[in-house]
Write a structure and sequence with these properties.
four-stranded antiparallel sheet
């Protein structure tokens, strides 16, 4: 469903990946770890093809980074839900309007928009907040809205970039529980994180980025300071 094959990626003054190979299977839950600056966010951008490899191939849900056409990019991205650390909610729109905007740009029928939003908000337990403005919600609630937004187009893959980075431990666990519930329905989830506590909570594959490559990692309590 997702694979990197001999991927190299360079910024003008920095080589990020040299020979990156990894795979995430359909319906899998995996963590992506590594030191700051190692390329976790860059890897996520390669997945939704906001950027492209210098060489090698990224394949996602049948699309190939070497052959995908510009007109196909929106169709790829609709099947990938992205959750950011800073939520990226529109501050001048209420929660319902934030979610509706995502569906309106794809010409989703009005009745279908209402149903999809209701379903997504129910999934994250915030149906009662649909008319609130983003700044009226706590950080944890805003992140749950961001998860709801990521679910609107029934993605095959959820990418979560430091989804608990600004949250307290209890709220972080709530966010992880929601992501696990989504995964159990069959959606693949890839979580990029520095949060060792959530990594050790569940039995999921851990991918570590180091020296431009990806490695299988096993996290033990004594490794906490290294994550």
């Amino acid at each position: 469903m997702l694979s990197f094959h001999n991927v190299e990626f360079k910024y003008p003054n920095q080589t990020v990946f040299t020979n990156l190979n990894l795979e995430v299977k359909e319906g899998e839950f995996a963590f992506l770890i590594g030191k700051s600056g190692v390329g976790k966010s860059t890897l996520l951008q390669l997945i939704y093809m906001n950027i492209f490899p210098t060489s090698g191939t990224v394949r996602v849900n049948g699309y190939d980074s070497n052959t995908i056409k510009p007109r196909e990019l929106p169709y790829l991205r609709r099947k990938i839900g992205v959750i950011f650390q800073d939520f990226k909610l529109l501050q001048d729109r209420n929660i319902y309007e934030n979610l509706a905007f995502v569906l309106e740009v794809t010409n989703t029928p009005r009745k279908r928009i209402k149903q999809k939003i209701n379903d997504a908000l129910t999934e994250v337990g915030l149906s009662h907040k649909r008319l609130n403005m983003p700044d009226e919600l706590s950080g944890g609630e805003q992140q749950r809205i961001a998860i709801a937004r990521a679910l609107l187009n029934d993605p095959v893959l959820i990418l979560a970039d430091e989804p608990t980075g600004n949250l307290d431990p209890d709220t972080s666990n709530e966010i992880l529980n929601i992501l696990m519930k989504i995964n159990k329905r069959g959606t693949a989830v890839l979580v990029a994180t520095h949060n060792y506590e959530i990594v050790k909570r569940i039995n999921a594959r851990i991918i570590k980025l180091e020296d431009g490559r990806a490695f299988k990692a096993v996290i033990k309590p004594k490794d906490a300071s290294k994550v």
